[in-house]
Amino acid sequence: MSATSQISKSHASTLSTRSELLRQRLTKWSKQPTVIRAEGPTNLTSARRLGYKATKSFVIARVKLLKGRRVRDRPTIGRKPGRNQKRVSPSQSREVLAMQKAAKKFPNLKPLNAYFVGMNGVNAFYEVILHN
What we know:
Elements: H1 3-17, H2 20-30, E1 35-38, H3 44-49, E2 58-66, E3 70-71, E4 87-88, H4 94-105, E5 110-119, E6 123-131
Antiparallel strand pairs: 1-2, 2-6, 3-4, 5-6
């Protein structure tokens, strides 16, 4: 059994059983800012599959997104029946939103790809691979 298959199996079991390590990470990440530079990828096999290499030109950014549908402000003046929907599903996936937030935080780097890391009751966490 290769090292990458062992790493992917251990990461999958960590996510499925919601281990103590994952819970500690999620509570720590939820107290951090929305976009933060990570020292390295949490799931190495997913990062390598999506194009990550351990060189200076690659950067991993962890992005925190709110779960649920987007809440839109209600119209203040006039009758606008088309705008009276309070909650709207965004047209983009969370992964794309995470890549956009990371690109805005690091304007000199280009987002290469993103992958899901974890989720708690309020937030969903993604790691974005950035390359210059």
